[in-house]
Design a protein that fits this description.
Layout (H helix, E strand, L loop, with lengths): L14 E9 L5 E8 L2 H9 L4 E12 L6 H16 L4 H11 L3 H15 L4 H6 L7 H13 L2 H58 L5 H37 L1 H12 L4 H22 L4 H11 L3 H15 L4 H7 L5 H13 L2 H56 L1
Antiparallel strand pairs: 1-2, 1-3
Helix pairs in contact: 2-3, 2-7, 3-4, 6-7, 7-8, 7-10, 7-15, 8-9, 8-15, 10-11, 10-15, 11-12, 12-13, 13-14, 14-15
Membrane topology: Multi-pass membrane protein
Keywords: Cell inner membrane, Cell membrane, Membrane, Transmembrane, Transmembrane helix, Transport
Protein name: Type II secretion system F family protein
Length: about 400
């Protein structure tokens, strides 16, 4: 069903942080900080908690809805599901959830949602006014829940979905950052030794007046080179990272090639592949179980894969499904999805059990990602010792070789 959102319905009111001093129950003095639109709003809010405000003043500037992460939306969805399921009216639930957040940007966002709902806007349209924070799946589920009178169930389903997706994201990030951290740590320690430690030995070596061993001479040469180039190299590295980030955001072709290269990496590529398939299957299963048409569900699932290669493949499959092709055939035509995934979806379509089969696919690949990340972590632990041992130990040994040689001569 087509919906029209009108962002001009409710003019956003600025939120401020207020510091107050008051008298609580049993005449106890109490101080605190609250976030709200105006002084009177804070006083009313605190009076409901049996706190009589004696002094209140504004602290800091306005708060926007920036800096909100998917994990914040996940918590919001879970709390709203709990509130609505308990029978608390939607507007009251929004106000209660807003108070539970310590993050000012989330409080600002939820307060704006509450203002829009209070003005007569549906919860679906209120969410639609903030597409940068609430994806199409969230909006589709809330719309279906409002229409069918099952809002709490839909919010709960969305919370479960987001919890699983965020858990999968965390595992993939762990797989990507773990080896990167090892390499950065190793090179950082090596650079520190070459720039700060080796020069201390160099003057002592010159006083020996003898030819240095080949390994020591190599380390001394590397130290001289590092002292001259470490700052320019660091600047080039930072500029390269910034350029890559800007290109990835501004050029879809570059982002596609970057994700394509990531999928081809040994070990890491396999984890990213499985994670993309798991997120695709989990999203499509959630949308299909909620009554969202398959074509719309594929459109939502495309953006949830987290990889441009799979996103393009899902959008291509969506076009084929829209023309009447079966889902498994459309997926096979992309030459992107694993054969096992295509076969399982084919069986699900033939048996009329597509949603359970999609859930099984998601669970299977999520478990595969778990196992792969655990295996990578176990493999990297001894590699850390080996890499750091070779880099640091090699430099230390090379520095003491001339001393050992001098002791032999004596």
């Amino acid at each position: 069903m087509a919906r029209q959102t009108n962002k001009s319905k409710v003019r956003p009111r600025h939120l401020y942080r207020w510091k107050w001093i008051g008298i609580g129950p049993q005449a106890r003095s109490i101080t605190g900080e609250s976030i709200g639109h105006s002084k009177s709003d804070i006083i009313v809010e605190l009076s409901k908690q049996n706190i009589h405000v004696r002094r209140i003043h504004r602290k800091g500037g306005t708060y926007s809805s920036g800096g909100i992460k998917p994990a914040d939306i996940m918590i919001f969805s879970r709390q709203m599901a709990t509130m609505v399921k308990a029978g608390i009216p939607l507007l009251q639930a929004l106000n209660v959830v807003a108070e539970s957040f310590n993050k000012p940007s989330m409080v600002a966002l939820i307060k704006r949602l509450a203002d829009e709902v209070a003005s007569g806007t549906s919860f679906t349209d209120a969410l639609g006014n903030h597409p940068q924070h609430f994806d199409q799946l969230f909006i589709h589920l809330v719309e279906a829940g409002e229409q069918a009178g099952t809002l709490s169930a839909m919010l709960d389903r969305n919370a479960i979905y987001k919890e699983k997706v965020e858990s999968l994201k965390a595992r993939v990030k762990k797989a990507l950052w773990y080896p990167a951290t090892v390499l950065i740590t190793g090179w950082g320690i090596t650079l520190l030794l070459l720039v700060k430690v080796v020069p201390q030995f160099e003057g002592m070596f010159q006083s020996f007046g003898a030819e240095l061993p080949a390994l020591t001479q190599l380390t001394v040469n590397l130290s001289a080179l590092a002292q001259q180039l470490w700052l320019p190299l660091l600047g080039i590295l930072m500029m390269t990272v910034l350029v890559f980030k800007r290109l990835a955001r501004g050029s879809s072709a570059f982002a596609y090639r970057q994700d394509q290269a990531l999928l081809r990496l040994p070990v890491i590529g396999s984890i990213v592949n499985k994670a993309a398939v798991a997120r695709f299957a989990r999203t499509l299963a959630t949308t299909s179980a909620s009554g969202v048409p398959l074509v719309d569900g594929l459109d939502t699932a495309a953006g949830s894969t987290g990889n441009k290669v799979y996103e393009q493949a899902v959008r291509q499959a969506r076009q084929d499904v829209a023309t009447g092709q079966q889902l498994h055939f459309s997926m096979r035509m992309t030459n992107c999805f694993p054969a096992l995934t295509v076969q399982m979806i084919s069986i699900g379509e033939e048996a009329g059990a597509l949603v359970p089969m999609l859930h099984r696919i998601a669970e299977y690949y999520e478990e595969e990602v778990d196992n792969a990340v655990d295996a990578l972590t176990s493999l990297m632990e001894p590699l850390i010792i080996i890499i750091l041992g070779i880099l640091v130990g090699g430099i230390v040994v090379s520095m003491y070789l001339p001393i050992f040689d001098l002791g032999t001569v004596i």
